[in-house]
Structures are given as structure tokens and as C-alpha cells.
Write a structure and sequence with these properties.
Blueprint: E1 11-15, E2 19-25, E3 34-41, H1 47-50, E4 57-59, E5 66-68, H2 74-95, E6 102-105, H3 108-117, H4 120-123, E7 126-130, H5 139-147
Parallel strand pairs: 1-6, 6-7
Antiparallel strand pairs: 1-2, 2-3, 4-5
Helix pairs in contact: 2-3
Length: about 150
Amino acid sequence: MSGLRIEKDTWILVGDGEKALVFRNDGDADYPNFQVIELLETENPLTSEQGTDAPGRRPDGLGPNRSAMEPTDWHTIEKHRFAKDMAELLYKSAHKGDFSKLVVVAPPMTLGDLRKAFHKEVASRVVAEVDKTLTGHPPHKIETILTTKD
């Protein structure tokens, strides 16, 4: 989805599980001008770099057989936690009246985490959701991708 008409003073959250940019449109719907107002990043090394223990084992019931348990995916857990942090930041800003409209841009997993974590005060201000990963693009390119028709 592109070609969004994003009104003046609308906030745009562009995030994934490790980085988030919050923009405000200082232009208007016809001539957008995204300005970065917040940058959040978290260090999230791969699970293999975060934990060294072998997966646990549990008995299969009676007898000597044991099954391996799925190892903990610390990398994914941190991505879910980061989405909650983004939602909390937006809640504080919404509560202060900093924005009235919000566009959310994130990959599907993060978008789902954000939906669950958004307080009703934030959720009621969401005017559009875009399921794309754009955090690797420079701000001017994000503006172009979101506002230019295909």
C-alpha cells in the first residue's frame, strides 16, 4: 500500500523489532515533509550470541527416554519487547496530546505486536497501517515510498 495522503502534523511510526523512527509530517497531504522527531534502537544480537546453554530435556513419561525442548529464541523475545516499548512511547505522547493522527509502518509480526500493545488512546488515532519493512531506508526515501502512488 502506498500513495497515502498524510495530513499535516500526522505522526508516522516506522519500526521493526530493532529500530523505530517517528516522523511528523510538517508539510501537507499534497507536499509531505517528514521530519524525524524520535529515533529508538535496541541492541538485539542473534540468539546464538545471547545464550550458550544447550536446550533442556524432559522425560517422555515412564522409562529412560527424554526429549529435547525447544531452545529459547532470545532474539525474537527482544523484538516483541521492543514493540511494547514503541507502544509505550506513543502512549505517553498521545496522553500529552502531541499527535492526533498516526500512521504505523512495520513488518507483519511487529505490526501485530503493536496492535496488541497499543493503548486505546493510541489505537483510536491510527489512520493507516502499512505492512512493510522500511527501517533500512533513509527518511526521504520512506517519505517517497509512503506517499507516491504505484
